[in-house]
Amino acid sequence: MNPCRRVTWALAAGLALALTTGTPAAGAPPSPAAGPRLGLISQTFNVAADGTLQLVVALPASVNTAALADATMVVGAYRAVDSREAVQAAVDGELPPSVDTVDLRLADLPPPSGQQLSVSVPLEARTRTSEALQLPAAGVYPLVVEVRSSGEVLAELTTFVHRLPDGDDPFVGDLPVAMAMATTSAVHLDDSTEVVLDDATMAELTHLADVLEAVAIPVSAQVPPALLDALARGDDTQRALEARISAALNNGVGHDALSLPSLPLDPSAAAAAGETDLYTEWLRDGEDLLATTTNSSARRTTRLIPDDISQGGARLLRDLGTRLLVMPVSVYDYLPDTFGGFTDSTQLVQLDVGGGVTVDLAVVDRFADDRLAQRTTTPTLTSIIAVADLLAAREQIVQFGGDPRRHGLTLATPDLSLPNTATVQAITALIADTPGLRPMSLDDLGVRTDQLLYDGQEVVVGLPDAVPGDLLTRTALAGALRVEAAATASMLPEGDPRPNGWTRLIDLIPTEALADDQVTTIAAELRAEYSAIRAAVVPPDGFSFSLTGRRSEIPLKIQNTGDTTLTVVIRMSSSKLLFPEGEQVVELLPGEYTEVRVPIEARSNGKFPVTLEVLTPVGNVRLGPPVPLTARVTALAGLGNLITFAALLMVATWWVRHVRQNRRKRSADTAFGRHPASRAAADQYPRAESESGGPTGDRGAVIDDSGLSPDAATSTLPPS
Length: 720
Prior knowledge:
Shape: elongated
Number of domains: 5
Largest sheet: 6 strands, parallel
Radius of gyration: 52 Å
Structural class: alpha/beta
Number of helices: 19
Helix content: 25-40%
CATH class of the largest domain: Alpha Beta
CATH architecture of the largest domain: Alpha-Beta Barrel
């Protein structure tokens, strides 16, 4: 059997046992539901062992008080409850065995005041008499009060009484109790990006002030800082409401204002989009707003989670200092690996936030949540039933061998919204006055409460990898707008207020307080403003120019049609020309043409294309398409002619020398062939002639002044 199934069966068995102890005994007097209800005006809930139970009840309109002379009031006590299920069973009329009853003649009671009767019932612990109601041990006892006449039940009431321990009762520790609530009004920004305080929002904030003023125990309240800031900056009525909320948060009861971002930003979406830095910044801003408006520091260590949260979102909160998350059962019951309704919500569950890291989770008490949300017409009875239920939870912990001081209950409505004012006022007032319950903040409860264990191991519940909501589209848009804003702002004079306004609008884009169509409108308006500023710069049309020297300047005229001095960057480029000063930063006066002279250096002659660009100082955003220019370079004409002439002169010199050498060679060959000695040598040595018929040796040989070759001049001739 897997762990979840084993714990399910174990807890189910425990609940079945608790329900068994609440089975009514046969013939237990008196029987409820025998007549119309008595109204409970007031009652002493916490009574000493030998104290007095006092009640003020209201008779139904159908009962004639003048005919009650012979009527009797019967007050019956039933066995103390030991589970929360037993409390609910008694409310439903399923009572445990009877302990004691007291009969009181109405004629002996103070005369009715209208339809109201006042009753005082003496209590006893160690003895049993007919005049007192015996409550033998400390605990919570169901009571049934009936008005009877001639054997007929005219009206009845089921309530509870908490008999306090005396010296003979065992010590049982106090059970910590904390309360949480959050406003549900969404923050909306109008088209002027101001927070909207509509009638519904004002009504809920007024409800918040009422609740904070009414509750008698510490409350951890989660309110968007933007709403409180809007109240503080609003009209007289709104400022007065903000003052009420601030005063209530600081009234000494111990209320906490929980941290939230300055504008709505979902931690799951921020984590998924990689915008943890943005979330951190907005969270700090929200804490600053709360400190300013409420004069109290925000509590970051606790966070209420009314909706789904991803593992990444919970990890982000944990990394930012959150140590306790609070979830309603409507969220918790659908988490991976949860025990659902079989979870002991008096202990903390561990939430897996990834990487082997967990964070504590308090689950809202599922027995009390609906009661806090409902409006009551019987505040006294409602509060008694609610507190009897909490004390029964304490007793149930003891029955299972636990220490109530290491457990804790978190009270809230099913969706963590604001409770009903009258209901919460009555319940918290009685909690504050009831021994055995210890009101405290959620922060303290998270520190004091133990983790839920199963088989000796802490119970760890998972979280989904992702939840609905996408921030990537908006953050990408905001990033693009910031780049455009930085480029355009670099053109403006220092101190121009427009960039600050752009930054403020861009910073709002990720928030859920803006609808998609509002974001689209903001982006379009910003880009139109950027374009208007950039379009005020008018570069010159394309033109041609000539360079008649190696170095020169090109005059450019650039127009600023706007009403603000603008700074631009001039860039010129060409493959055949040099621009020694590179890019030039130029200020353009409003409504004028500004002449810019660009130094240029020629590298060769010819006709070359040149590109002119006018750019923003930051980002190099083009202020219009590149301007094509044409350069005609004649700066190197004299040097070219000199080089050409020198080349021609060298060619002519070589040609003349070559012609002269050829002529001399031909003349030498002719003279050699006519000389007598060369003929005689040719006859004597015929092999000395070359195949071509020429004299022996190289045809280019040097001939001396005698007309003979060197070999012939030194040879020995035969005798004649």
